[in-house]
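Example record

Each entry pairs one chain with its bound ligand, D-gluconic acid.
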Amino acid sequence: MSFRNDFIWGTATASFQIEGAWDEDGKSPSIWDEYCALPGKILDRSDGKTACDHYHRYEEDVALMAQHGIRNYRFSVSWPRILPEGTGKVNEAGAAFYDRLINCLLEHGIRPWMTVFHWDLPACLEKKGGWLNDQMPDWFAEYTGVLAERFGDRVKDFITINEPQCVLGMGYMAGIFAPGLKLEVKDQITAAHNLLKSHGRACRVLREKVKDVRIGYAPCAAPAVPLDEANPADVEAARKAYFAAGGDSPLFSVSWFSDPAVLGTYPEDGLACFGQYLPEGWKEDLKEICQPLDFYMQNIYEGKQIRATDGAGNYETVPYPAGHPRTACGWPVTPRALYWGPRFLWERYRLPFIISENGMSCHDWVTPDGKVHDPNRIDYVRQYLKELRRAAGDGADIRGYFYWSLLDNFEWARGYTERFGLVYVDYATQKRTPKDSLAWYADVIRNNGENL
Ligand code: GCO
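C-alpha cells for the complex follow.
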C-alpha cells in the first residue's frame, strides 16, 4: 500500500513557540507572554520573548525546508501581532512580517498552511473574559477576516483552531496552561460553546473572502486503541472510548469539540451530562457552528489501550507495561494510534483526514562531529507512518502528515526542556543544526513513503 500520489508532506510550528519578538513592531502581549511572567508556571522559568527568533530568521528556516524537499508548512499567526487591541486597528508592521514569510515560502515552492489560532490570545481580550465572553465569536470572525483579506490571495489552506481541548481543558480547567483558570463546569461549557461558534464564524468568513479556500480544524487526542485488534469487542470498546464525552468534563473529549463542527450535533452522552449548562439557543447555534470543512485534522502523539470487560459495552484502559518505550517527555510510543485514530475518525466524520501534528521529544544534543543523531525519532516516525499508511490501505481517506516540529521550540509549560524539532536550535546562539531525522524525512518525502 502506498500513500496517495498527491499526499501532503509537511512540518508544523506555532507563532508563540518560535517567533520571539514578543514586544517588537507593535505586537501587544498575549496571554502566554503574561503567563510566562508568573512565578512557577514554566518548568525552566523561560518564556517566548526570543524563542527561536524566527521573526528575524524566517528566511533561514524556510531555506532549510526547501533544501529538504518540504513542500507544505503549517504555521500560526500571532493574533496580538496583527491586532494589538484584539480588534480594530491592524498593526501594519505585524502584517508585513507574515507577508514576508508567505512570500518567502512561495518563492521556495512551499505551500503555506495558516493556523488562525494556536493559543496566543491577545491578553487584552482575556481581560474582557476571553472565551467566556459571548463577543468572542465576533472578535474571532473579525481577526479571521483580516487574515483572509491580507493573505487570502496567496494562502489557500487555513486551519481555524489548534487543539480546542488544550485551549480550554488545560487553560480554563486544569489551569496549567495560559491563562491558568480552573473554571466550574458551567463556565467550561460556555467557553467551549463560544469556541465552537468562533470556529463556525471563521469558516464562513474564510469561505466568503478567500477564493478556492480549503479549511481544516485541528483538535487533538490520544486515540483509543483496541488491546486485541482481532477481538471485535475490543475494537467496539475502543471506538466507544474514543468518542466518549461524559464524565466530569467534556473538555478533553474528541466528540464534544468535533461532532458539533462536523455533524451539527453535540454527542448524546455529553448532552446527558452537560446539556443543562449550554446557553439559551444552543441548538440554533449549531447551524452556525457546523460549516463545510475540506479536512478534518488531528494532532496525535500517543494512544491508550482499551479492552472490553464484558459483553455489555463496558471497557477499561489497560496501562502500558513497566519499561514500555517512552519519549523524552514520557509519552508512550504507540504507533497503532496512527492507525486506529484516523480509521475511527474517518468512519465517524467521513472527511479527508490529515495528521496536523505528530512527532516526539528526544534528548538531543550536538555531538563532537557537529551533528545531531536522533535514531529514536527516525524509528518513531517510521513506525507511526507505516500505521498511517495501513489505515489508508484499509480505506480511510488519508491526505497528509505534518511532522511536529520543524524546529526545537518553546514547549509551553515545559519551556525549552523538550526538543521535538527536525532541526536542533542552540538558544544561546540561535544556531540551527539539522538533525539526522531531517535528511531521513526528506528521503521519505522524495519516495512518498515507499521506503519506510
Ligand atoms: C500541541 C501543540 C503543540 C505542542 C506539541 C508538543 O499539540 O500540544 O499543538 O504546540 O508543542 O504538540 O506537545
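The mean pLDDT is 98.
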